[in-house]
Write the structure tokens for this entry.
Amino acid sequence: MSVISIFFTALFYISLIVFFIGMVKKIYQFGITPAPLKIPIAPTPLTQKGVVMRIIREIVLFESLFRSNKWIWLFGWLFHIGLLLILIRHIRYFWPYDLPDIFLLTQSFKYAAFVMVIGLIGLMLRRIFVDRIRYISAPSDYLMLIMLLIIGISGMIMTFTSNHTDIIMVKEFASGLVSFNWKNLPTEVYFLIHIFLVFVLMAIFPISKLLHMPGIFFSPTLNQVDNARSKRHIAPWALKQEKEHAIRLKQILGKDE
Amino acid sequence: MVKEFDIPALPTYLETPKLKEGVMDGEGPFKSAQEFQNPLGFPGEKVDNWQKVAIDKIGEIKSKYRSVQVFLDSCVKCGACTDKCHYFLGSSDPKNMPVARQDLFRSVYRRYFTFAGKYFPKLVGAKELDNDMLDDWYNYFHQCSQCRRCSVFCPYGIDTAEISMAAREVLDVVGIGQKYCNQILGKALTIGNNLGLPEPALRDTLLDLEEEIEEETGGIAVKYPLDQKGAEILLITPSADFFAEPHIDGLIGYGKVFHQDGVSWTLSSYASEGANFGMFIGSYDVMRKAALRIRKAALDLEVSRVMVGECGHAWRVAYSFWNTLSGVGVGAADEFSQKLQDQLDHRYPQPQHIIEYTHDLIQRGKLVFDKSANDDRTVTFHDSCNVARATNMGGILGGQFILPREVIKSVCNNYVDMERSTIKESTFCCGGGGGLLTDDLMEIRVKGAMPRMQALKTVEKDNGVNTLAAICAICKSQFSKVLPKFDFDPYMIVSVHQLVSEAIIMDKRKIEVQEDKSEVD
């Protein structure tokens, strides 16, 4: 194996491990942190089913964002849906075996790259030209968009121009990573840029704002049922405190505190 | 004392202002003195090692509140909230954009608690908690009414109120409390209400009120019982209701409704307050203490129902938090909660809002109105933030929007809603909530009221609206103060139960006559 192949192979596993450990840690942290009070935000569902539907609508349609601002919604939604379709299409590179016929359909998902890049450009232009959004942007916010844009554009160059990368080699490399049957990767520059940034993005996922992906499931304002009067909601630390106070309370009940 | 400032003009259409950095920079509200800090368990002045204390407190809060932890990590700076805050729309100060306000907190969290912020602070906008930052916290987290309008529009439901509460708790713990909130809390926790009305004064006030109503109604004895053991209903209401206009007109309305229903009810001198400023300062413990007073009053008076008057955040605390804090609801853990829950009548929701009660009586035909008594009014309803975005009424989807409107429409012939994007879950805050209802914050209060005033102006022009009805004591106080600043009549703000009070037919005989008539019909 060439040095560069070893480097990228190693980078993949390092990034994957960082991603995995980081995400598990974060999700665990979100999970164990109690929500001491009922704080759902209107329009609040009164049932668990309503809550599930609400989260699904938020994830699939970006409902609140649609209510808020049609431009952010449009660009944000285009970017995310484009990215999703492209990720599905990329499965064929990593799948070590023959693909079922149904995957032929994902061939057309390559055009989703345009959708994704248009979305990203829209988001970037907003960040640059709308003074409110510029005011709240940190360098990392631009950097994230730039990385995604370079990933998208380098992928499009390989797909839609004559700068084709050796697709057989890509498949052997990528499926080799999954099946631990390591192979050389094509050293074509657009491809190297493309996967380098993808691996970097994977590694920074758990320490960046990309945490909005798991975060949305843990957001108490979105995931709580509005049933405070009919069901008691109490955090473990509050219950512990309550029990510790119980004796004192006995003494003061009937007297002023 | 209060500094001069520009009162914003009311535009025909609400537009997003150009950023004017630093226009609302300043000292913030009056700081709390030792005498108000210590009783709440906070240091009397800024502690020497404040930075360490603050960072430790942030660490504690984020491990106790999932909201804070998730919200600090999840924001992508998409900008959806940037034009949603009434204080930003009214002041143009970019630090009043919800995301920027939160970033005062988030940038500090990043610096001390995240990998990226520790090693690449410039890249991710992480900042030290220095004196300037602390000043910004004090100033700008007291320009947030915790109304949660921004969070309705956030794709992740990030709630600035939670961050604002956390920031205020940190400030209190380092010894920089806000005078208005903490002084009030002191009164509520010792005397029983925010105004500091002791039992004899309260009793006198209520007796005066009884006389006044008897005179006005021509001899109908509407009673305002205080500390009456064994009454069915304990009413917990904001103490403003005992005292000031237009609040007291609402109290008159409640009394008439109770009278017509013939139910026994009582107020408590020990827990005469519904408002719980513990929420505003983000302190679970202080909020719980205030809630426990109410539980104790309910137990002592042996009531079977607990009801809440017209107060926005009181209703939020009651509806969403009482069951958690003190067990007024279902499923309690400690023996006093269990005792209370055995005592309460669970055919009714516990606690219940006065609007739910009146609405139910209207539905069951137990109240009769002469709607024409309100014919001089064209009414619009201001959804108070905490009621609209954090609670429910009637157990039906959106009941908190439907029930008050139905009550108003039952007692008035002329009702108009303000523009859809400014009401219901998208309602604009009055500008005075969240512990901002103090004269030293008059500038931000007036500026923050602009978006609500703009919507009101539109229905005034287009539909001849001359009455603004609300079910929150803070809204009512705030509007009384700011309406004239925008050339409205300060008396156009009324309590919903004032409208009920004016239309209700009190005479028992008249009701029977009407019933006979309807049978003939």
